[in-house]
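User: I'm writing a short report section on ligand binding and want a predicted complex to refer to. Could you take this sequence and flavin-adenine dinucleotide and write out the structure as tokens? A short remark afterwards would be nice.
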Amino acid sequence: MLVPIPADTALGGGGSEGGGSAAIEQAADTAIDQIASWAGIDDLRERIVVRETKGPADFLEDYNSWRGGMLGPAHILSQSAMFRAQNESRRVSGLYYAGATTAPGVGVPMCLISAEIVLKRIRGDHSSGPLEVSADAPSTKGTA
Ligand SMILES: Cc1cc2nc3c(=O)[nH]c(=O)nc-3n(C[C@H](O)[C@H](O)[C@H](O)COP(=O)(O)OP(=O)(O)OC[C@H]3O[C@@H](n4cnc5c(N)ncnc54)[C@H](O)[C@@H]3O)c2cc1C
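Assistant: Sure. The structure tokens for the complex follow:
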């Protein structure tokens, strides 16, 4: 289950079989109970075979993510499109950024587009649309 919570390391980290911080385990319990109620499975908690939680403190410690955030800046208007932090540093010449915390945003496809934007910036390519795929690039299609 993916449970949205604030990017706040004070909430603590997760653990095995209920061994995480009180706030994280409580959030997990609440989410499990909600699903149990929606699905009409009263003993859902007891049916769980493996329980492992992760919290903001884990994201800070394991991935060095800012404030333990899991997905980077939210896509509110002031952090979206041209208002979102862009891919080129304003302070350090030649420093570029790719990934979820920069433009265009969160998610693996967005991160790949982000890398593409960086490459286009470095090449001075101001064209719209995706890069051309060269004829000798490895195929991403399976052969089976
Ligand atoms: C639970 C969860 C589910 C998700 N589900 C989906 C999904 O279904 N589909 C989807 O498209 N996206 C999903 N996402 C989002 C997606 O995973 C991220 O947007 C994407 O992985 C971000 O890629 P990134 O390269 O920017 O950062 P990351 O993948 O976080 O990579 C950054 C790497 O840099 C390392 N690092 C940090 N600091 C340093 C340092 N100082 N030195 C060296 N290395 C460092 C970190 O350890 C990490 O390995 C999900 C995310 C989460 C958390």
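A remark for your report: The mean pLDDT is 93. Helices lie at 22-39, 44-47, 56-63, 108-123.
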